[in-house]
Amino acid sequence: MTLAIRTFSLGPLQTNAYLLQDADTGRGIIVDPGMNPGSLVRAIEGMTIEAILLTHAHFDHMAGVDEVRRVADCPVYLHPLEQDWMTSPKLNGSLMWPQVTQPVTAAPAEYDLGEGQVLELIGHRFLVYHTPGHSPGSVSFHCGSDLFGGDVLFRMGVGRTDLPGGRERDLIDSVHRLYRLDDQVTVYPGHGPKTTIGYEKENNPYIR
After folding, report:
1. Which of 10, 41, 111, 188 has the fewest Cβ atoms surrounding its Cβ within 10 A?
2. Domains of the chain, CATH where assigned
3. What's 100-140 look like in SS3?
4. Long-range interactions of 94-97: CB distance < 8 A, separation 24+
5. What is the pLDDT of residue 1?
């Protein structure tokens, strides 16, 4: 079964939201509906969306959750360490960026995510890795040869650890864990272009 992946760069921080669609059934899921999600909302009109998956709950990754929820009528999945961030502008960081956004809140997620959990969605299996460091509840979703890692690993970069709850040692451990995946795995990050595990192992200047 083929997984079609569409990328939407949302909001002033150009956060990547991903629409994953099963090519056979047309059913979809969304990873990280960020700020100003109008283009994403238009894309899912008339589509059955089974879930919204959050890699973490910083405001630029979850600001569009409630708008997408209203259209898609689907549950949200988030690691429990960041459940409170949905309702707290202080915790989700939106109070730190008044030049970018008003305080952001959203209804809590319906389901928790945990290490090693397997999600059966749109006819595909998504394995959940707990990959903290950028934030305490950051997770990555691994499906076949694709990885949706939020702000853990970027092309030639890694997530920042100077925000509340960030921890450099945890981030290093998380990236090294992802480096154990096959070199051919494509990494879809929270910002910027996609990359591969093999490319980052060889070229990423921050973590080798």
Report:
1. 111
2. 3-96+108-203 (3.60.15.10)
3. CCCCCCCCCCCEECCCCCEEEECCEEEEEEECCCCCCCCEE
4. 94/59, 94/63, 96/163, 97/59
5. 66
